[in-house]
Fold:
Amino acid sequence: LPAGCKVCFVALLQSFSHYNLVAQKLGVNLRAAKERGQLVFLEGLKSCLDLVFGEKEEEESGKPSPLQFMSESNSNLKALFDFVRTSLTPSDSDSWKGPVLLVDDLSVLLSLGAAPVAVLDFIHYCRVVVCSQLKGNIVVLVHSNEDSEDEENDLVVNSLCHHSDLILWAEGLATGFCKDVHGQV
Structure:
């Protein structure tokens, strides 16, 4: 945001308030960025609750919910992709630099019932639009554990590793918790 990029933040793990508090500690005001149109924020937790309890976002905006796959028999993430594409495609009046897609946490889509192939298709199409066509960047958080028996998550993580330009692994210290240092990069 401070670099002047247009940002689409698909937040599936935490609320807007959480990210706003963290950003304020870093000197960034997410609320102001939203108001000026630089940040498009999808609050996944709220969208999921609205779908589960029958409050339709579709009635308000005229568009299907980005997480519509939860209430359908297929795990098609097309509505989520359309949300990302629409959010980051520049209009004539936009003066933002390259677009950035942030997804926190891609593993949540699997927990919500999306198939691994649908998640990988979603990321593939996002890469085509955001990286190739719009010359932007994608940053994705995925949880992974070597001891995990979650084959679907492992498939997504391994595929993302093969298609990523930069991978940062964060893990706890082998010696346990430490007050000053909480992990290693």
Summary: The helical segments are 16-25, 30-35, 44-52, 57-61, 78-88, 107-111, 116-133, 151-163. The two ends are 24 Å apart (CA to CA). The mean pLDDT is 84.
